[in-house]
Amino acid sequence: MAAESPLLEAKRRVEYFDLGARSYIARCDSPRMPFKHTINPYRGCEFACKYCYARYTHGFMELRDPRDFEEKIFAKRWNPVAFREELAKIPAREMIAIGTTTDPYQPAERRYEVTRSILRVFAGERGRKLGITTKSDLVTRDLDLLRTIARANVLHISMTITTVNEQLARKMEPYAPRPELRVNAVRALVRAGLSAGVFMAPALPFINDSEFEIDRVACSAADAGASYFGGGGVFLRQEAQAMMFPWIDENFPHLSGRYRTKFSNNAFLDDGYAQKIAARMKSARELYRLPHRPYDYHPEQWEGEQQLALFTL
Ligand code: SF4
């Protein structure tokens, strides 16, 4: 009987690889970015968002099938000595962003803890500026370290939430934690005294960019006590189009032609769209009294700060 049983579903198979890293910290010279340095503990990302712009980065490792990005995950081999040496070369006040290309709290992190290892180093630092971006509630596992870091360094954590509609999220970001878990993670981070905001990006035309969708995410962010709220439109490079267009065909066939026409010759949406999205985000912020950007707070043990003497001996 077993031999004749029809297949119901084949479990998705992800392969993990150990990647010897030449360096952990990359420099970012783009004037559009608020950070100067980036850290991505993993290459590839199992969350498999259909719109993911980072798929092309697997091409640097000669892996050109866009699916490889979500099925072949490389964990950077941890070498604390090498990491500390690299970090020592970076001036204290220069912004370092963790999770700019791949998610630092994707499932591989439960096994390999590369992100946690990096945070352990930052927990011993003072006077640094650090940002973390994720779609995962696994970030709350590291509350202890995050609180220690935030006492002596500026730390902002951005949770990406593209929709609070669970069915839509499952379609767009099939293996990422569901929106409710992300909202609750923001709540937990803020309750722990951390600066944690919601980033609603990317907005996909006619899919999650309506005033209603933006309002729902902003409302959830406000309810969780988010420290800031922002977002922006999608851009679709060719590698991302290879995943995105068939997905649109399957789930939003009425949009197939429009997406192809819009993105085939240009990865970016025009300025007019960007302005409309910005205006919708602004209205939502005003309605829920959410700041646009992280506040510039002063850590209690900021570098160079004179400590008060409690007792005079
Ligand atoms: S979480 Fe980010 S890096 Fe990972 S698949 Fe989604 S968009 Fe790409």
A few lines on this structure:
The protein has 11 helices and 10 strands. It has 313 residues and is an alpha/beta fold. The strands form 2 sheets. Strands 2-3-6-7-8-9-10 form a 7-stranded mixed beta sheet. Strands 1-5-4 form a 3-stranded mixed beta sheet.
Explain what the structure shows.
By secondary structure, the chain is an alpha/beta fold. It has a single domain (12-288), classed as Alpha-Beta Horseshoe (pyruvate-formate lyase- activating enzyme), CATH 3.80.30.30. It has 11 helices and 10 strands. It has helices at residues 68-71, 80-88, 108-112, 114-122, 143-152, 166-172, 179-191, 211-223, 238-251, 256-263, 271-288; strands at residues 15-19, 25-27, 37-39, 42-43, 72-76, 95-98, 129-134, 154-160, 195-203, 229-233. A 7-stranded mixed sheet has the order 2-3-6-7-8-9-10. It has a 3-stranded mixed sheet with strand order 1-5-4. α9 packs antiparallel against α10. The radius of gyration is 21 Å and the shape is globular. The mean pLDDT is 92. Iron/sulfur cluster binds next to loops.
